Amino acid sequence: MNTRIEKILNKQIKAEATSSQLYLAMASWAECEGINGTAQFLYAHSDEERQHMLKLVKFVNERGGKAEIPSIEIPQKEFESPSHVFTLLLEHEIQVTNMINEVVFVCLEEKDYSTHNFMQWFVAEQLEEEALARNILDKLKLIGNDKGGLYLFDRDLNTLISKPETPTN
Ligand code: OFO
After folding, report:
1. Is 160 a residue whose pLDDT tops 90?
2. Residue 165: what pLDDT?
3. Domains of the chain from N-terminus onward
4. Whose C-alpha lies nearest to ligand 1, atom 1?
5. Which residues have CB under 6 Å of ligand 1?
6. pTM
7. Coil, helix or strand for 79?
8. Pocket test for ligand 1, best of 93, 99, 120, 127 (most atoms within 8 A of CB)
9. So what's the pLDDT on residue 167?
10. CA geometry: angle at 122 spanning 117 and 125, to 5°?
11. Is 145 helix (H, G, I), strand (E, B) or coil?
12. pLDDT tens digit string along 55-76?
């Protein structure tokens, strides 16, 4: 595997692991706050990010590179509200999208078309994740401080949990 590609994919492995830990911290906070629908949504989202990391780990190793399993900084553990959580989540996803775009850019510069092809899955996934986070934030804006609305929002968040994906690469 081209060393520049290996390096940037390893950077992405760390980004996905960081996402997984951050969403796990958010899930744990939500559970302690008694907003269980939100907690379940975030636990599932954390698992999804771990699957993204694994997908990259397996791809790097199968293509003759060496995946690096990173250490992760302790994530933020206190949040002000569900809106605060999902605002941070969207900001984080936008950062990850920028990183994915950078990987795609390097693939083109290095003429590595098979990694470029592999990364298209992540490009599509980022679009979905950003759209989902924006959708949730829009709902929260509408609800404002209405406790009944927040109760229903939390209950319904369960329905937005996507199915865990088994990594194929
Ligand atoms: Fe891995 O999609 Fe979010 O970060």
Report:
1. no
2. 52
3. 3-69+77-160 (1.20.1260.10)
4. 49
5. 16, 19, 49, 52, 93, 96, 125, 129
6. 0.92
7. coil
8. 93
9. 52
10. 135
11. coil
12. 999 999 999 999 999 999 999 9
